[in-house]
Every structure is written in structure tokens, then in C-alpha cells.
Amino acid sequence: MYIRIYQRKYHLIEITTKFTCALALIYICLPHRFASHYNYLSLKQIENALVSQVTHNITLQHLDECSYGDILAENRYMYRAQYREEILRSEEILSGGEYYPEKCRARFSTAIIVPYRQREEQLHSFLIYMHNYLRHQRIHYRIFLIEQYDQKPFNRAKLFNIGSNIAAEYGFPCLIFSDVDLLPLNLGSLYVCTQLPRHMCSALDMWRFNLPYTGLFGGVVSIRTEQFRVVNGMSNLYEGWGGEDDDFYERLQARNIDICRFSPELSEFTMLRHKPEEKNENRVALLRAGVLRHKMDGLNSLMYDEKERRIHNLKSDIGYDLSKVQNQENLKYPDDSKQLNCVHRLDLFDC
């Protein structure tokens, strides 16, 4: 009797263990089953939302316009070894990491801005894959590597601000801010601008293809140059990891500028392995006061020294020293009464 009961308990434990292991295996191997839901543009809405703007040199081409509907509809999986290991048809890429299709006239000109410091392995992988990937999208693009030379904590947002100014020198109407360790998996994630700023990597493998929260606006984002200037760019004060993306989102909200996303299937990205950046211990305090600084902290308060510009086959590399002092004490806030009135208003810039 005792032996039978013991055997039953043993079998129950064995079954429970196997069932738990099976669930864990499903969770590990099939993360898409658990993907969160969020509002996104349908294929028809995407085509209507795309902003057709190009640089002057592209307008001079006498070719039929390129089409993009088939790229979105097929959404071909691209993250294959053939695209990751070597650059195919490298002769198509112009000096400075620029490309435009020759068989049709691109409808979009995009500056891809990548903040960088001492990530050689990730940069190598990024450049190879992205040039192979982007040329299949039939767009005009140029990759700008904005490199921080000094040894202060990495200031990602400030490098984006600088990159936007450089891109404006070349007349690019569309900006894509991309971390060097994020790569798109499928071709349907068009590297172009939409009417609203777009969060492009909403289905990231590191998050098990979930969107952690709807206000997330970092990693890889697209925004029109004119919109970026309207919100005074990003904050220059976030040194180290964290906070700058949320601050940027709040800037957009303060200007009543919403964001959009494509479907999870069109927004799948992978993250390359890397050593995490040092966290910004002041990020929470900076974020809490961010709404009061938007007008004074950004493109109009940039301080930096440009060290050199190098034009490579695969990229335009611009190096900067950001060690000039730039802190909250340098910013003049409105008087207290106006601060209190502005904190809870969306028309902050009219305060």
C-alpha cells in the first residue's frame, strides 16, 4: 500500500516536472506567442503615412519613382549569414556610406545617425549588415557615425543632436537615430519617415518581442528633420545610460506630437551582445524636471568641439569632444509661477 502511494507521488512529480519543462521550452523557443499588443499602422495606413522627401541631387534624376508596396507586403526575412558576413556588390556604395538606386528614383532620403564610442565589433557587424539590408529597400540613405572622443560618460542624446546638424548640412529631410547594436530582421521595416515620429524596434528579441511600455521611444526611431527642430532636439544633460529616450518622448508629447509604430511583424529587431554602459545616476531627477528644460536644453544649447571628419567607403565618421561643461546650472529657468503653470500643460512652449 505504502509502496503504491509512493509510486503514484513519484509519477505525479515526474509528470509535473516534464510539463513544467515543456512550458519552459515553449517559452524559450516561441517568444512570439507572448508578444504584447499595441496600436500600429495597417499596410494601407503605412503607404499613406510615408513622407516622400528627397535631397536636391535625387530630384534631378529623370527616372520613374521606385515602388515600395511589394517590400511591405513580402516583408522578407533578411537576417541571414549571406548578409551578415560580407558586403555584397560593394561598388554600389558611394563614398561616405551613401547609396541611391540607379534603376528608379528613390522617394525617400534618410540620414542614419549612429552615436558611437569604442564598439568596433558591433560597428563592423552593423555596417556590413545594414548596407546589405538598406539597398534592398530602394531608398537614398547615408550613414553618419557620430563618435565621442573624450572619456566622459557616453552622451548618446547629445551625439544625436550633433548628428542632426550634420545631416542638415547635406539636406536630409528624414533622420533615423539608431544604436549601433540594433539590427532589423525583416525588410518591411522601412528606414524612412512617416507623418508622425516612429518607434521602429517595438519587437526586440531582448524583450522577447514584447513592447515593455507604450511610451518607449528609443533604440531605433525615425523623425522628420523639421519635427526634431520643433522640439529643440534632445536633452544634452544625460551622461551615461538611461533617461534620454523618455525625456525625448515627453518633448514630443509637450508639443502634441504623437508617435506611431508598424506591426510587430514589421518591427522585429535583434540586439548584438555588448558590455552595458554605465548608468546615469541622475537620470530620474533629470527626467522629473525635463518638462521645464525643453525650451532651453537641446539644439539651441549644444557645446562641443569637432575634432575631425573622415569619409570612409561605408560611413561618414565625425569625431567630437564633448568635455565642455554643460549642466543644469547653465540653464535659465522661467520664474517659479510660470514653472508651476507649465508643468501640467501640453502647450509648454507657449508658456
UniProtKB/TrEMBL annotation:
GO terms for cellular component: Golgi apparatus; membrane
Main location class: membrane
Compartment(s) of residence: Membrane
Cofactor(s) for this UniProt protein: Mn(2+)
UniProt topology in membrane: Single-pass type II membrane protein
Key words of the record: Glycoprotein, Glycosyltransferase, Manganese, Membrane, Metal-binding, Signal-anchor, Transferase, Transmembrane, Transmembrane helix
Any one GO biological process: glycosphingolipid biosynthetic process
Top-rank taxon: Eukaryota
EC number: 2.4.1.-
ATP-binding found in the keyword field: no
GO MF term list: galactosyltransferase activity; metal ion binding; N-acetyl-beta-glucosaminyl-derivative 4-beta-N-acetylgalactosaminyltransferase activity
Domain Galactosyltransferase C-terminal: 198-275
Residue ranges of the TM segments: none
Associated pathway: Protein modification; protein glycosylation
Residues annotated as domain Galactosyltransferase N-terminal: 89-194
InterPro entries named in the record: Galactosyl_T, Galactosyl_T_C, Galactosyl_T_N, Nucleotide-diphossugar_trans
Family: Belongs to the glycosyltransferase 7 family.
Known function: Catalyzes the transfer of galactose onto proteins or lipids.
Protein name (Swiss-Prot/TrEMBL): Beta-1,4-N-acetylgalactosaminyltransferase
Gene source species: Glossina palpalis gambiensis
